[in-house]
Write the structure tokens for this entry.
Amino acid sequence: MCFGFLGIQFGFALQNANVSRIFETLGGTEIALYWLAAPVTGLLVQPVIGYMSDRTWHPRLGRRRQFFLIGAILASAALFVMPNASVLWMAVGMLWILDSSINISMEPFRALVGDLLPSSQRTLGFAMQTFFIGVGAVVASLLPYIFTNWFGISNTAPEGVIPPSVKWSFYVGGVVFLSAVLWTVFKTEEYPPEDMEEFEAEKRNTTFGDGIREAVVGIFKMPKTMLQLAAVQFFSWFALFSMWIYTTSALTSHVYGATDPTSALYNEGADWVGVCFAVYNGVSAVFALLLPFLARATSRKLTHLICLVLGGIGLISIYFITNPMLLLVSMVGVGIAWASILSMPYAILAGALPAKRMGYYMGVFNFFIVIPQIVAGSILGFMMDRFFGGEAIFALVLGGSSMILGGFLTLIVKDVDAHRA
């Protein structure tokens, strides 16, 4: 059920670790602004896909699987095209297409766990997703470093050209993305609607206009738990987006002292960003297996609070580091937070959602992931110039502080499943 997430995370990790590098290589300066393409697509795509998948049934492909199959085909194609972008606008456009396709695949995977698992197994189900996310991200983040140091493929290129090590990483990612999703498509069975005639009748009687109206009105009828989690998600994902946008700039300038994208020292630092991202994802994969036990021993809320605080401390600590190896220690905290961010909010949320609207509300929940990313993409560039003197490291400090605040906001959330128990 969860294996396809290994492939999805290959695409997501390659995007996170390398897109800023690609933009800078092609002469981009407004990095945060270019990244807005990613969250905007999620804001538009996930609720629509969730609503459609709730009202779809195919005899062979079920309710969710057909959607993440389509997304995987499109995303794999985008991974082959993006590293061959020759101009900045083409790279930004391909980020838009890539992120849209990843979102088409990702949203139904979240709903699939809610569909097929009872409440007592959902924490484990989402933790298992996080495990595969971590494994996929470790390998994908390391690929440029592996191709350079193990296979001798160059990590530098003439001005305006993407290095060969990055290109080959994206090609491998495209193959793995599609292969892993196909495994889940063919190996997983979904439960058909309990009353097929009623399901088909409801589909026939629902017009496109009804669907749009219901999708909009449903936003204002969100369960209380979902609204409470919104605040936690906002500050958590603001922090993550700050990290994804500015880690390359922060590490290459603050730790390596390099700002020229064509220099060997800059590209050495950019490769080390991939290693750092691999470490936090590896920690996430291992720690995800511990989350169900920690949540059972304490609570899902307290577990999430502790994890976010550790992640925030990890991001802030980067400011004080000059030795690249010590950055890996910071990434341990980030990895613990990442494991919980990918598991605990969804486990808490699933217990508060009506079963018939699981896909739709999981898609709407994505608002609270993409809105903070849009805010980050809109204001971080301005803050960098106005308050931080162009020093990217301060964006990571701000992100760490935001993550700690999100952790303490977990205390206001009502876990419906825990309350019932």
Q: What stands out?
A: The longest helix spans residues 224-255. The mean pLDDT is 85. Residues 4-420 form a domain with the Growth Hormone; Chain: A; fold (CATH 1.20.1250.20).
